[in-house]
Amino acid sequence: MKPARNVLIGITGGTGSGKTTIAREVCRTLGSETAVLLEQDSYYLDLEHLPFEQRSLANFDHPSAFDWGLLVEQVSDLLAGRAILRLVYDFHSHLRTRETVRVEPRRVTVLEGILILGNEALRNLMDLRVYVATDADIRLLRRIQRDIRERGRTLESVAEQYLTTVRPMHARFVEPSREYADIVIPEGGHNRRAIASLVAGIRALL
Q1: Domains held by the chain: number
Q2: Assigned domain for 63 exists
Q3: What pLDDT is stored for residue 1 in this prediction?
Q4: Which residues on neighbouring strands pair with residue 39, listed in sequence order?
Q5: 3-state secondary structure the chain
Q6: Each residue of 70-95: b (16+ CB within 10 Å) or e?
Q7: How far apart are CA 77 and CA 190, in angstroms?
Q8: Nearest-5° Cα angle at 188, 190 to 45
Q9: Separation between Cα atoms, residue 137 and residue 143, nearest integer Å
Q10: Chain centroid to CA 174: how far?
Q11: Which residues in the chain show pLDDT less than 70?
């Protein structure tokens, strides 16, 4: 029997775990006419009221950094078959831009982010909850590579942020949310068999 509404798949895990790779692969395999990807990182609160130096020191790994009300509202709209205007966040300036992206509803919405299983309202909307478990040293290396290459950070700034906010917030919020997962995928995006099984499970939901 088909669900009464569109399906929501939640994919979480620590920074650099491979959750984004898995989420994108799931959407690619299902096809753009069936699945759409939504990323928690698009829903950071706007810090325009703070100077750049203070914005740079914000704790972006704490639940209070996100606009959960808007995220839940837009996820609910997609599940109900309504298009949304997704925000665009600039990681260089730590600000929301003025542009938006129209996202059309699909039978499957894949939502990925480090804290999504910790939010009860989102968790209750999910038809399948996935936690991606990857060793901390691998996650750190991936974080360093991404932040330097894609976000213009220095090695020193990445290391400081990791030690002061990323690592402690992972232990406090991300890792405990693993208990809510229906499926745990080890090795991140390199686990091809697990990704294939996940896609098969989603197709069964449809």
Answers
A1: 1
A2: yes
A3: 40
A4: 112
A5: CCCCCCEEEEEEECCCCCHHHHHHHHHHHHCCCCEEEEEHHHHECCCCCCCHHHHHCCCCCCHHHECHHHHHHHHHHHHCCCCEEEEEEECCCCEEEEEEEEECCCCEEEEECCCHHHCHHHHHHCCEEEEEECCHHHHHHHHHHHHHHHHCCCHHHHHHHHHHHHHHHHHHHHHHHHHHCCEEEECHHHCHHHHHHHHHHHHHHC
A6: ebbebbbbbbeeeebebbebeeeebb
A7: 32
A8: 135
A9: 10
A10: 12
A11: 1-4, 189
Give exposure, 21-56, as e/b (b: 16+ Cβ within 10 Å). bbbbbbbebbeeeebbbbbbebbbeebeeeeeeebe
The answer to whether residue 32 sits within a structural domain is yes
- Two tokens at 190? 């390199």
User: What was the pLDDT predicted at 194?
Assistant: 87
Q: Which residue has the tokens 């509803």?
A: 105
pLDDT in the model for residue 152: 79
Q: Among residues 59, 67, 76, which one has the least CA distance to residue 41?
A: 67
pLDDT score for 4: 53
Q: Which domain holds residue 49?
A: 7-205
CATH number of 117's domain: 3.40.50.300
At 166, list the tokens: 């990323």
Would residue 2 count as lying in a domain? no
pLDDT value of residue 2: 47
* Tokens (6 digits) for 61: 């790994």
The verdict on residue 1 lying in a domain is no
